[in-house]
Design a protein that fits this description.
It is built from no helices and 7 strands. It has about 100 residues and is mostly beta strands. A hairpin with a 4-residue loop joins strand 2 and strand 3. It comes from Chloropsis cyanopogon.
């Protein structure tokens, strides 16, 4: 069983499943329990004989973006296979144009 957990933004909180199949489970997590205007779509929701995936991410932030961290955690047969963390926005000298974006 190939389990893929997609954790995005901050620290663990409420987790929502995106898709599940016999070989793949994908979810995302926000740090709080408040509903977010967030959508992540992955096609197909399978790893078998699928060398190319298409993914789309849409997110409407509830506040200004000063801090943003992405954590990508992959598990294979229950064991941690990959852990990738990226600090996208830290509040100072950020590389990405989305950092510092004001709400609205």
């Amino acid at each position: 069983m190939f389990g893929l957990l997609f954790f995005i933004l901050f620290t663990p909180g409420v987790s929502e499943f995106i898709c599940a199949s016999s070989d793949l489970e994908m979810s995302y997590t926000f740090c709080d329990s408040t509903a977010h205007a967030f959508m992540f779509n992955l096609t197909p929701c399978s790893t078998r004989n699928k060398p190319v995936w298409k993914a789309a991410l849409t997110w409407i932030p509830r506040s200004d973006i000063h801090f943003l961290k992405v954590v990508f955690n992959v598990r294979y047969d229950g064991a941690k296979a990959l852990l990738w963390k990226e600090l996208v926005c830290s509040g100072a000298d950020d590389e990405y144009s989305v950092c510092g974006t004001l709400k609205g």
